[in-house]
Design a protein that fits this description.
By secondary structure, this protein is an alpha+beta fold. Helices cover 63% and strands 12% of the residues. A hairpin with a 2-residue loop joins strand 4 and strand 5.
């Protein structure tokens, strides 16, 4: 992830501010601790402000150095490619900055509590005394800050990698869904045009009506082509256009019954998910038989899911064949799209009804687009 210059400066300022706050708190806590201990074990009085003047310069210096250490950690990361030379550089940095911090903080203290006739010899003696007691602690603080900075950088890179991976996965899923829909459109269009061809010479008026219905249907499909999900109301409207064409083809042989719970009309469903199911019911359940055919379409709310059912009164699946034997491109495509949309949070099953015919059920999560809640259009 690349940051803009403004964002980069904001992060830098935040690092300095947090460093100053943390070091100030640590310095104040140590001042209180040293003050109480000094008052307990010494008879001469020592004011709190004087104790603060001894302690705080050390932590003010660290407040200035910590962002620098974090920056050095970013510039010279200890990674596989250059870990040896960068580790060596960090050792040099730790020894150098530990010494500079000690000299600078002790210099401030020495200036505050300077003797009447200060000499450099006295200063170096005080630095030597402090170095023998605290230099190794300074080195340890450097490595603690470097380790903390490394953990922050590791977490940031891990988060960026995970975000990028999720984005790529989402883009791949969308691409696969688009591919599935593009696979479905030619199949649907071919079957519809094949239906029109039956009447192009036998009944011109009827063929003209079918072309008009097909035009309306294709217009709706094109308008919704870039939308992965639509409301069930919109999906049923598209399905009605398709069924109008099929009713012309089969005339009195095709009857459609719909039982739609009004509460489900604003629920979001995958775009163009019902037409392949209705086409499967007509093609396999109605077309092969001379008797009148019936297609039932229902939708109902079941807690946090909606159940959509499309059934026919045909012969159903042969008992001697597995449940998926009647699955052509439409049903296979539908299964794949549902899996891409919802993962394991959906169900789709095919079974023979007791009264005959095939039943296709899909159960998907109930989600409502707030913009469509007040849509009062009728089916």
């Amino acid at each position: 992830m690349k940051f803009s210059k403004e964002k980069f400066l904001q992060l830098r300022y935040l690092t300095w501010i947090m460093s100053f706050i943390v070091c100030t708190i640590v310095g104040l806590l140590l001042t209180i601790q040293f003050y109480i201990r000094y008052q307990t074990f010494h008879t001469e009085a020592l004011g709190f402000l004087k104790m603060m003047a001894y302690v705080m310069p050390d932590w003010i210096m660290w407040a200035l150095l910590i962002p620098m250490i974090i920056r050095l950690n970013e510039i010279f990361p200890i990674e596989k490619s250059h870990w040896k030379i960068n580790l060596f550089l960090h050792i040099i940095f730790s020894l150098t900055l530990a010494a500079l911090e000690l000299i600078a903080s002790q210099g401030v203290v020495w200036l505050i509590f300077t003797p009447e006739q200060p000499t450099l010899e006295q200063f170096f003696l005080s630095v030597e005394y402090i170095a023998l007691s605290y230099y190794h602690w300074n080195v340890m603080i450097y490595w603690a800050v470097a380790a903390f900075g490394y953990l922050i950088d590791y977490y940031k890179r891990f988060h960026e990698t995970r975000t990028q991976s999720l984005r790529l996965q989402s883009e791949l899923t969308e691409a696969e869904l688009r591919a599935l829909k593009m696979q479905l459109h030619p199949h649907f269009l071919f079957n519809t045009l094949n239906t029109i061809s039956y009447y192009i010479y036998a009944d011109v008026d009827l063929a003209s009506r079918m072309v008009t219905d097909l035009s309306d249907l294709l217009r709706i499909i094109l308008e919704q082509s870039g939308t992965p999900e639509v409301t069930l109301r919109q999906e049923l409207n598209l399905l009605d256009k398709y069924l109008d064409i099929e009713k012309i083809r089969f005339q009195d042989r095709l009857t459609v019954e719909k039982t739609i719970d009004p509460e489900t009309l604003n629920a979001m469903v995958p775009n163009l998910i019902l037409q392949p199911l209705a086409e499967n019911a007509i093609r396999h359940g109605i077309a092969p038989h001379a008797t009148k055919g019936l297609v039932r379409i229902s939708a109902s709310r079941q807690d946090q899911h909606i159940l959509i059912t499309i059934s026919d009164n045909g012969s159903g699946m042969p008992r001697s064949k597995p449940a998926g034997s009647r699955e052509g491109i439409g049903l296979t495509n539908t299964r794949a799209r549902l899996q891409h949309h919802y993962g394991d949070n959906h169900a789709m099953r095919l079974y023979n009804a007791e009264t005959g015919g095939l039943v296709v059920e899909i159960k998907i999560p109930y989600r409502v687009n707030e913009k469509t809640r007040n849509d009062s259009a009728a089916i």
